[in-house]
Each structure stands twice: as C-alpha cells, then as structure tokens.
Amino acid sequence: MLNFLRRKKATGQPGVVLSPQDGEIFSITEMPDPIFAEKILGDGVCILPANNYIYSPVDGCVDNVAGTGHAMGIISEDGAEIMIHIGVDTVELKGQGFKVNVKQGQKIKAGDLLCEVDVNFIKSKGYKPHTAVVLTNGGAFSVVGISTQKVKAGKDVAFRFAPTGATS
User: Fold this and answer.
1) Considering the chain, what is the average pLDDT of its residues?
2) What's the total number of domains in the chain?
3) What are the backbone angles phi and psi of residue 92, rounded to the nearest 5°?
4) Which of 7, 70, 85, 130 is catalytic?
5) Within a domain: residue 168?
C-alpha cells in the first residue's frame, strides 16, 4: 500500500552516489548557503527538491542523525562519508517538518527511505528547501564528476568519486 515510500532497491555501486531525492541537481557552489557553496564541508551537489522523500544514495551505514532531523551522515561500503543536509538554516525549525526513518548505526542500502520532509512547510516558514549532498572526507576521496540535470532518487547518479590521487 505504501510502496511509493520505499523505492525499488537500487544497487549501490562503488564510487557512485545516487541522488537521494527527486529534483534538479546543481553544483554545490550554487547552494544558497555559503558554508556549502564555498565547499567548506566538502564537494558535492545541491538538489532543488521535487518531493518530500529522502532516500539513501549508497549502500552503507548511518553514521549520525541530527536530533532535529535536518541532516544525517552515511558511510558508504567503500568508506566515503556522505552528508545529506536538508534545507538552509532548517536546524532552526527544531525538528518540525522532518520525520527520520533511520537511526545511528543502522545498515542501509541505496534506495532505503531515510527521511520524510515537508518541503511546503519549510518554504512556508521562510526557509529554502535545497538539499546538500556532500562528500565530507575529501582527504581520502575526490569528487570526479557531478550531474547537473533533473534526477530521480535512487535511479540517477548525483556524483561520482574516486580515492584521492586516482585518475578518472
């Protein structure tokens, strides 16, 4: 009955981060938050969301979940640390508009539902709903290619990465 909440299982691929959300992908430099746009936390992409569901972009383990539900970290099976940060300054909502469906330490597969977010609520409170998807362990890995297009969660590639120093 609620099959739309659980995507058909995507198969995580080494060096690939799938889009965690339906929407339009842009370079992280276009994120309307300087912490992300200036790549202070790492390289990645910005998604302008088309719906309220966030899915795992990789096979791995939930490393941490913000108490407010607006951000989470995942460690992929190949060791990449991926942060998903939903909205700009949405920590100020203190959890309103977010329903987290995973917990720290949980094993996940690409396509598992991580979080539900009320995008219209975020907008109604004056916040931007853009989602940042960032590779945070840039010392070990480098982003080697990003998508800039409309994407489907769990189906389309958000970006690719390789060990630092590897050729693409």
Assistant:
1) 91
2) 1
3) -65, -15
4) 85
5) no
pLDDT tens digit string along 22-68? 999 999 999 999 999 999 999 999 999 999 999 999 999 999 999 99
34: containing domain: 2-7+14-163
Whether 144 maps to a domain, the answer reads yes
95-110 pLDDT per residue, tens: 999 999 999 999 999 9
Rounded CA-CA distance 125/163 in Å is: 40
85 among known catalytic residues: yes
3-state secondary structure the chain: CCHHHCCCCCCCCCCEEECCCCEEEEEHHHCCCHHHHCCCCCEEEEEEECCCEEECCCCEEEEEECCCCCEEEEEECCCCEEEEEECCCHHHHCCCCEEECCCCCCEECCCCEEEEECHHHHHHCCCCCCEEEEECCCCCEEEEEECCCEECCCCCEEEEEEECCCCC
Give first-to-last CA distance, the chain, whole Å: 43
pTM of the prediction? 0.90
